[in-house]
Amino acid sequence: MASLHHFSDRLHAAIRAKGTPALVGIDPRLKSLPAPVRDAATGPTELDRAADAFERFGKGLIDAVADLVPAVKPQSAFFEELGPPGVAALSRIIVHARAAGLIVVLDAKRGDIGSTAGAYARGLLGGAEPERPDLADALTVNPFLGADTLEPFVSVAKERGAGLYVLCKTSNPGSGAFQGVTQDGRSVTQRVAAEIDRLSQETVGEGGYGIVGAVVGATYPAELAELRAAMPSAPLLVPGYGSQGGTAADVAGAFDGAGLGALVNSSRAVNFAFAAEPYAAEFGPTRWQQASAAAARAMVDDLKAATS
Ligand SMILES: O=c1ccn([C@@H]2O[C@H](COP(=O)(O)O)[C@@H](O)[C@H]2O)c(=O)[nH]1
């Protein structure tokens, strides 16, 4: 049996249980939240009220999709933007998601010199204290400072049974400007991939995948397939499906023969489904959770073609 202390083994058990690699992002923006959520929010200051709205929305979204998908990905930036009340709301959303049995990937894209990286790793994944329910199962990490700066994240993640997703080929239109720079025939992305491959092989679990994975955008399908082959034991986190234009066909190259090895993220298209067709007419802001569930269900169905 796969070890439940090993991130990829846990992740794959969750993917198998739900029958899908669909990952729902939690990316709240105050202006885009359904009016009933904004109206219900309370608090002494504007920031407190915004954080309360984010918390209601995040927990409501989790309740809407928990039976459908194996994992959620809160985007830390939106919570950090609100200061301490936002960060506290994020912690409670993580507790809620984990209590619902979901794997939580915190998208915070941290990275710094080694000694500081250790503090980020312990702060976001946990230190010497017993396991905390307010911390994520996995974290996104920025490798720009060099391979040595990944080590503290890896050692904390190993100890905590957590996972890491290292930025490798990001989904944004300008990702090639730095990541595509080539020296001696190898791009920065390929060099980062080689390091991820090494770290994933070093941390491989019973299911054949390591705890160190890669972020590779759905918006670059050819590179996605090449990078899958270059890092056979690295779990992939694939953003860019949905709102950024990535399709099920684009992400097909992310998976192994068993349909495992990757999570495909969609944030805005699921979060704000109530405000866009085809769901707006049927559901609207008062039934926003049903709209999000319908959008998540459509994503799950759509991805079946990519994984079979
Ligand atoms: O290369 C990357 C890395 C991270 N992201 C993040 O994923 C979501 C995508 O949101 P959508 O609404 O589905 O476009 C968001 O949190 C990004 O910060 C990414 O898009 N690309």
From TrEMBL:
CDD domains documented for this protein: OMP_decarboxylase_like
GO molecular function, one term: orotidine-5'-phosphate decarboxylase activity
Domain of life of the source: Bacteria
GO biological process, one term: 'de novo' UMP biosynthetic process
Keyword Translocase: no
Stored InterPro entries: Aldolase_TIM (IPR013785), OMPdecase_AS (IPR018089), OMPdecase_type-2 (IPR011995), OMPdeCOase_dom (IPR001754), RibuloseP-bd_barrel (IPR011060)
Keyword Membrane: no
Residue ranges of coiled coil: none
E.C. numbers: 4.1.1.23
Family matches, as SUPFAM superfamilies: Ribulose-phoshate binding barrel
Domain Orotidine 5'-phosphate decarboxylase: 21-283
Keywords attached to this entry: Decarboxylase, Lyase, Pyrimidine biosynthesis
Record: active site: K109
Catalyses which reaction(s): orotidine 5'-phosphate + H(+) = UMP + CO2
Pfam (any one): OMPdecase
Pathway membership, UniProt: Pyrimidine metabolism; UMP biosynthesis via de novo pathway; UMP from orotate: step 2/2
Family that this chain belongs to: Belongs to the OMP decarboxylase family. Type 2 subfamily.
Protein name: Orotidine 5'-phosphate decarboxylase
Organism: Alienimonas californiensis
